[in-house]
């Protein structure tokens, strides 16, 4: 039975082989690097099985430039960061097999696929075979810990449950059921990353006969801190969508918008209405998003997210204005995302190890003081801020830039102070037993007035700070900014007074 299927498959393979040879020769005459024998076998079937993937790959640099050629470029123009390419990989295009058969011994999801050891989930350590610098930096990026930072933090877990859990109304009471894992995967872990595991092997009927594949749970997912079947963390695909893996996509703000958009994290909406975003929208189609290194002035005239946070930026004499970093907080001296106050940046990207004086896993006390031992010191803060300012100063004067950061500093002080007032009110409510919170050892996120308190710091204070940091004034005023900050706090106060009256 099995052998006839194989026989049938072979005939198909021959046919596709002819087609694919024609396809490769006609579509990309002369432009491609040579393809390894194994990748050729993959292409023979996949040109018809997954033509979209093959076409994307053919348009990518991976199909066009072999590693041996890539390393010959000057360091500043080079797009791979490995010095010695492992035997067998140097001379060929980076094809299906070069990625999907790497490190097979580490991959729980590796399987025998038409006699090749293939895994579907290509992970950062696989990319590190040729891009070790980016992979090592990304491991230090808070993003690659995004799953762990939620799943290991009891306080965030209780927040997650109150948002995702099911609520039923019975006998005038709310009955609460915890969310199941699929709901959490569709919600928080969609961006933060799921845990991908292999739950078995399944034989499926395909267009080319029966084949066995591993069954992946928690997949598909393209979250930044995904836990992979080889035990590694993170994914490079959130910004380098497969199978083009293009630098252009990563440099455009739409890529970041997928996750940095909501009222809690409004970097993208703020950016898109800022002057920088306006210039990008108006003139961006004339910019060069492919050039490496990226030349300020010649290639682009206003910053995108990548320019301020990630990119290697040079002037027209190729003097470096900023080094590239995949540890994307190298130019961030503090966290303006309130937990629950803005604070100096954490030292470790694994924020779940942080604990404040009250034993809460938060980088600030409830009264606002930063938990210093887990956060960077002021020397490091100045260094990071200086690196960011160097980018601004390539287009702006000293006074403009100083004024901008002074405005941000004041806004942080002000929004932290308003958060303290809201926290004073909720603490009184808890002490009076009008809602069940910290003193009662109860969930602090589930009751109506607690949700008002959360919105105070998570939406309104954050939005106001993001506007001060990245432009987009309305997000600091009427669109989730100071108007709601001032209104919500009065409503919290009214709630308190009303409940006190009712209790009498
Ligand atoms: C004989 C034809 C054939 C060859 C050769 C082949 N594949 Fe496949 N491959 C398939 C078919 C058919 C599927 C299943 C498509 C479907 O889900 O219906 C598949 C599925 C896959 C999947 C997805 C598995 C999943 O989890 O759903 C990956 C990844 C893959 N192939 C990679 C490769 C790589 C890499 C090579 C070369 C080393 C290769 N294939 C060679 C036919 C082939
Ligand atoms: C959060 C978004 C994001 C993630 C995740 C990400 N990158 Fe990048 N990457 C970028 C941006 C933006 C650039 C453009 C940098 C520049 O302009 O210098 C880039 C550039 C690159 C380049 C081109 C470097 C060069 O010399 O031209 C490589 C290679 C790369 N990334 C590899 C990776 C790998 C490997 C991973 C996973 C470990 C990864 N990236 C994860 C955003 C990301
Ligand atoms: C540069 C490395 C790289 C190359 C080259 C590459 N892939 Fe992939 N491939 C990936 C990554 C990364 C993923 C995403 C897996 C994940 O992390 O979820 C992926 C996913 C896939 C999937 C599953 C995606 C889906 O949407 O079902 C298939 C099938 C696949 N690749 C086939 C191929 C084929 C065929 C080729 C050759 C034309 C190829 N790949 C070349 C890295 C690569
Ligand atoms: C076997 C080596 C190898 C592996 C494995 C590999 N790459 Fe690459 N990568 C290259 C080469 C070669 C280039 C093209 C260099 C050039 O054009 O000079 C490249 C270029 C890139 C670029 C820049 C593309 C552009 O448009 O400038 C990105 C981004 C990238 N790779 C990401 C990845 C990611 C993500 C993975 C893992 C899923 C990966 N690579 C795996 C060798 C590799
Ligand atoms: C649309 C994408 C997205 C979704 C969905 C999402 N988050 Fe986030 N989350 C982010 C981003 C982006 C940040 C980083 C914000 C920043 O630093 O500006 C973040 C950061 C966090 C942090 C800070 C973690 C730390 O210690 O570093 C917590 C806590 C958090 N999110 C909780 C949640 C919870 C709970 C859910 C589900 C109810 C959730 N998130 C869903 C994008 C998302
Ligand atoms: C798939 C979702 C996703 C995408 C796409 C994404 N991010 Fe993130 N990002 C996150 C999450 C989630 C966090 C917070 C993780 C945590 O706190 O544990 C984060 C954190 C960050 C941080 C770190 C903040 C800090 O204080 O350390 C920066 C900077 C950042 N992202 C920039 C970007 C840029 C620039 C892009 C686009 C090139 C981008 N992100 C694309 C989800 C995403
Ligand atoms: C003009 C430069 C600039 C641009 C463009 C820019 N940012 Fe920022 N970003 C900043 C500054 C300044 C801060 C605050 C830095 C500080 O105080 O340490 C910041 C902070 C952040 C943070 C950190 C939030 C936290 O947790 O503290 C994230 C995430 C972020 N930006 C994402 C983005 C995204 C996504 C885009 C594009 C949609 C973008 N930025 C565009 C300058 C910029
Ligand atoms: C590549 C050049 C470039 C870089 C880099 C750059 N800017 Fe700008 N910026 C501009 C241009 C051009 C304008 C529009 C000036 C005008 O209004 O005519 C602008 C406008 C602004 C505005 C006015 C905002 C508004 O929405 O009205 C502020 C504030 C600002 N930039 C701050 C910064 C800061 C802070 C940095 C660094 C974190 C920075 N810029 C980096 C080019 C740049």
Task: Give an overview in words.
The chain has 504 residues and is mainly alpha-helical. The chain folds into four domains: 1-100, no CATH class; 122-245, no CATH class; 247-328, no CATH class; 399-504. It is 45% helix and 9% strand. The protein is built from 21 helices and eleven strands. Strands 7-8-9 form a three-stranded mixed beta sheet. A hairpin with a 5-residue loop joins strand 8 and strand 9 (320-322). Helix 1 crosses helix 2 (37-49), helix 19 (398-431) runs parallel beside helix 21 (482-503) and helix 20 runs antiparallel to helix 21 (482-503). The longest helix has 34 residues, at 398-431. Mean pLDDT is 94; it is low at 1-11 and 13-30. Residues 61-62, 65, 67, 70, 73, 79-80, 89, 94, 98-99, 122, 126-127, 129-131, 236, 240, 245-247 line the site of one heme C (HEC). One heme C (HEC) binds at residues 253, 256, 260, 267-268, 271, 276, 303, 305, 308-309, 332-337, 388, 408, 469-470.
Mean pLDDT: 94
Bound molecules: heme C
User: What gap, in angstroms, lies between the N and C termini?
Assistant: 82 Å
Strand content: 5-15%
Work out the radius of gyration.
26 Å
Strand order of the largest sheet: 7-8-9
Identify the overall geometry: globular
Structural domains: how many: 4
- Stretches where pLDDT is under 50 for at least 5 consecutive residues are 1-11, 13-30
Number of strands: 11
Helices, by number, come to 21
Helix content: 40-55%
- Determine the structural class based on helices, strands and strand pairing: mainly alpha
Largest sheet: 3 strands, mixed
């Amino acid at each position: 039975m099995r052998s006839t299927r194989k026989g049938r498959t072979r005939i198909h393979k021959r046919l596709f082989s002819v087609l694919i040879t024609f396809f490769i020769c006609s579509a990309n005459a002369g432009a491609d690097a040579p393809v390894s024998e194994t990748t050729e076998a993959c292409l023979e079937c996949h040109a018809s099985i997954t033509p979209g993937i093959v076409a994307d790959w053919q348009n990518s640099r991976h199909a066009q430039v072999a590693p041996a050629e890539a390393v010959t470029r000057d360091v500043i123009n080079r797009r791979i960061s490995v010095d010695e390419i492992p035997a067998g990989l140097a001379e060929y295009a980076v094809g299906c097999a070069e990625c999907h058969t790497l490190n097979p011994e580490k991959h729980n999801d590796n399987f025998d696929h038409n006699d090749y050891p293939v895994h579907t989930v290509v992970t950062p350590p696989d990319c590190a075979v040729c891009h070790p610098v980016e992979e090592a930096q990304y491991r230090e990026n808070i993003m690659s810990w995004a799953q762990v930072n939620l799943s290991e933090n009891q306080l965030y877990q209780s927040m997650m449950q109150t948002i995702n859990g099911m609520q039923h109304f019975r006998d005038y009471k709310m009955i609460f059921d915890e969310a199941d894992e699929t709901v959490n995967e569709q919600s928080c872990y969609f961006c933060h990353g799921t845990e991908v595991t292999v739950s078995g092997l399944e034989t499926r009927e395909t267009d080319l006969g029966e084949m066995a594949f591993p069954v992946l749970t928690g997949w598909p997912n393209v979250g930044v801190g995904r836990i992979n079947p080889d035990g590694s963390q993170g994914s490079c695909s959130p910004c380098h969508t497969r199978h083009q893996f293009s630098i252009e996509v990563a440099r455009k703000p739409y890529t970041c918008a997928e996750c940095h958009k909501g009222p809690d994290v409004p970097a993208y909406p703020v950016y898109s209405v800022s002057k920088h975003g306006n210039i990008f929208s108006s003139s961006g189609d004339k910019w060069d998003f492919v050039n490496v290194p990226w030349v300020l002035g010649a290639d682009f005239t206003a910053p995108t997210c990548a320019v301020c946070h990630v990119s290697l930026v040079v002037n027209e004499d190729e003097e470096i204005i900023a080094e590239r970093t995949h540890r994307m907080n190298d130019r961030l001296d503090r966290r303006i995302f309130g937990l629950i106050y803005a604070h100096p940046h954490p030292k470790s990207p694994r924020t779940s190890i942080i604990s404040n004086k009250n034993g809460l896993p938060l980088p600030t006390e409830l009264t606002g003081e930063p938990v210093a031992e887990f956060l960077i010191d002021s020397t490091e803060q100045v260094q990071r801020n200086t690196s960011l300012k160097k980018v601004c100063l390539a287009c702006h004067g000293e006074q403009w830039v100083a004024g901008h950061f002074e405005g941000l500093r004041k806004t942080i002080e002000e929004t932290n102070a308003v958060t303290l007032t809201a926290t004073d009110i909720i603490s009184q409510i808890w002490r009076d037993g009008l809602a069940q919170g910290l003193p009662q050892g109860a969930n602090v996120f589930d009751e109506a007035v607690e949700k008002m308190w959360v919105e105070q710091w998570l939406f309104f204070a954050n939005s106001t700070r993001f506007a001060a940091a990245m432009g987009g004034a309305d997000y600091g005023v009427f669109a989730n900014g100071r108007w709601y900050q001032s209104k919500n706090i009065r409503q919290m106060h009214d709630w308190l007074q009303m409940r006190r009256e009712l209790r009498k």
